[in-house]
TrEMBL record:
Name the record gives this protein: 4-hydroxy-tetrahydrodipicolinate reductase
InterPro entries given in the database record: DapB_C, DapB_N, DapB_N_CS, DHDPR_bac, NAD(P)-bd_dom_sf
Gene: dapB
Entries under NCBIfam families matching the protein: dapB
GO CC annotations on file: cytosol
Length: 255
């Protein structure tokens, strides 16, 4: 059997990439190219005409928070499923996406704050630990070219921890600070302190530090290379057309 007989073009998932010349977009294009069951249909970056992806089955978006909503609305209108790694998704934005999808019930969208499998597990472990500790703080560390702070991963982790703490009847983490240089105690995300570090040499790292009587628990994840996100991205690309509507996070796909 020849290669062509083994995989006819009709069986390939055609993938378009938005943000294709960015740090993540470059890796996504390489990963799609290297996958036997996927075909890179179009690579779009700032200034390109996005109608080049009209024939794609799935679009992957790693752009910026200020353009991602417009991209996503356009994809949904075209009936193209989307896998989104771009940050900036508030509850309000997610509700807007659900509204667009209501008119296109066959379209699937996966939005994940972090496609690293280890990072997804780190968030799950943190949510599980949250109810058992009086104190919690998050320290995220990223490369200095990152536009947003705190990271989407840290924001998502903080919200999950806050929800678990509320369900367990825990109040705020104890903190006697009275005199503070603004910013010294980090950002407050749903009552959880989040500290954002930016330094050359870093890629994407996060620690969740829990404190209880006489002990601490640190849950840490490190992405040393952007290839770490690719198994999760490809998992979502392969799954998204079978998941109509909005899926937030990779958890359901991993299960
Ligand atoms: N969920 C996850 O696992 C991960 C998420 N991210 C997130 O993904 C996003 C991108 O990160 P990163 O790749 O590092 O950023 P980059 O800045 O390297 O890449 C973004 C790219 O998008 C391009 N772009 C801007 N506007 C448009 C547009 N309208 N259409 C198409 N392309 C456009 C930019 O072009 P130009 O530079 O010319 O503006 C740039 O090439 C960020 O929000 C980041 O936080 C990152 C890593 C993992
Ligand atoms: O900009 C990045 O690099 C990353 N962005 C995502 C985030 O904000 O959480 C995911 C990962 O941390 C890398």
């Amino acid at each position: 059997m020849t290669d062509e007989q083994e995989k006819t073009p009709a069986e390939l998932v055609r993938v378009g990439v938005f943000g294709a010349r960015g740090r993540m977009g470059i890796e996504v294009c390489k990963a799609v190219d290297a996958a036997d069951d996927l075909e890179l249909a179009a690579s779009i970056d700032q200034g390109d005409n996005r109608s080049a992806v009209s024939g794609a089955h799935v679009v992957v978006d790693f752009t910026t928070p200020d353009v991602v909503m417009d991209n996503l609305q356009w994809c949904i209108e075209q009936g193209i499923s989307a896998v989104v790694g771009t940050t900036g998704f508030t509850e309000q934005r997610l509700a807007q996406v659900r509204g667009w999808l209501a008119d296109k019930p066959e379209v699937g969208v996966v939005i994940a704050p972090n496609f690293g499998i280890g990072a997804v597990l780190m968030m799950q472990f943190a949510a599980r630990a949250a109810r058992h500790f009086e104190s919690v703080e998050i320290i995220e560390q990223h490369h200095p070219r990152k536009l947003d702070a705190p990271s989407g991963t840290a924001t998502h982790t903080a919200r999950q921890i806050a929800q678990a703490r509320a369900e367990a009847g825990l109040g705020p983490s104890p903190d006697a600070t009275k005199d503070e240089v603004p910013g010294a105690r980090g950002a407050d995300i749903d009552g959880v302190r989040v500290h954002a570090v930016r330094a050359t040499g870093l890629v994407a790292h996060q620690e969740v530090l829990f404190g209880g009587t006489g002990e601490t628990l640190t849950i840490r994840h490190d992405s040393y290379d952007r290839v770490s996100f690719m198994p999760g991205v490809l998992l979502a690309v392969r799954a998204v057309r079978n998941r109509p509507g909005l899926t937030v996070g990779l958890d359901a796909l991993l299960d």
